[in-house]
């Protein structure tokens, strides 16, 4: 049987036990204690069932504050980081059109879909795109458009974006992404080699850019190419 079909059948979107709404509510309380203040972000985290974005083998750990494997040597980001990046993005003001680089499991995109009009998300591993698409269908999410491509180049067809959120770390900021931002738009991006990455917020002001440095983070690398 097709792997996507198997996964869709085995999803329990309401959840039970560790995957239940109360586990999600506890995760939201923890995010509050960790300093996440934006109620809209907390609501979105409370709404999206994180356990369906990973293999069943790990779904019992879905509401722990940890990154977890999603196959293909990639991970779903830690809930705190997802919330922190989303909060930083929304602080930029207007957020109709957002580009995410690194779809992975689709969890971050699903959170964004509750907060902005249209999400565009690009990923270099095609199999992950297929899985993410089937999860969005299961959840009835219709405002995410996906593309299999190298995210260093953004997604020019729909540029410019009110915000761009990158969920894998380049050694240096890809210039192309900066010029796909609207004026006043924000790029949220982890930058640096493994072991010394910093989460940065870059705001476009006409043709100059303002950089804010947020905190230490640990992301998988932003790789070159889409194979
Ligand atoms: N946002 C994801 C996190 C996934 S981890 C989630 O919520 O699950 C980062 C993802 O970035 C991986 O899936 C990896 O394949 C992808 N990635 C790495 N380099 C990339 C590139 N150059 N272009 C697009 N995606 C890339």
Verbal overview:
With 227 residues, the chain is of the alpha/beta class. It has a domain at 67-217: 3-Layer(aba) Sandwich (Rossmann fold). 31% of the residues lie in helices and 26% in strands. The protein has eight helices and nine strands. The radius of gyration is 16 Å and the shape is globular. Bound molecules: S-adenosyl-L-homocysteine (SAH). S-adenosyl-L-homocysteine (SAH) binds next to β2, α6 and β4.
Task: Describe the structure in brief.
This protein has 227 residues and is an alpha/beta fold.
Pattern of helices and strands: HHHHEEHEHEHEEHEEE
Count of runs of 4 or more consecutive helical residues: 8
Average pLDDT metric? 90
Name the CATH superfamily classification of the domain at 67-217.
Vaccinia Virus protein VP39
Task: Supply the helix-strand structural class.
Answer: alpha/beta
Bulk shape: globular
Q: Say which molecules are bound, naming each kind only once.
A: S-adenosyl-L-homocysteine
Counting copies of identical and different chains, the oligomeric state is: single chain
Look up the CATH topology of the domain at 67-217: Rossmann fold
What gap, in angstroms, lies between the N and C termini?
25 Å
CATH class category of the domain at 67-217: Alpha Beta
- Tell me the major beta sheet: 7 strands, mixed
Helix content: 25-40%
- Percentage of β-strand residues: 25-35%
Question: What is the CA-based Rg, rounded?
Answer: 16 Å
Spans of at least 5 consecutive residues with low confidence: 1-11
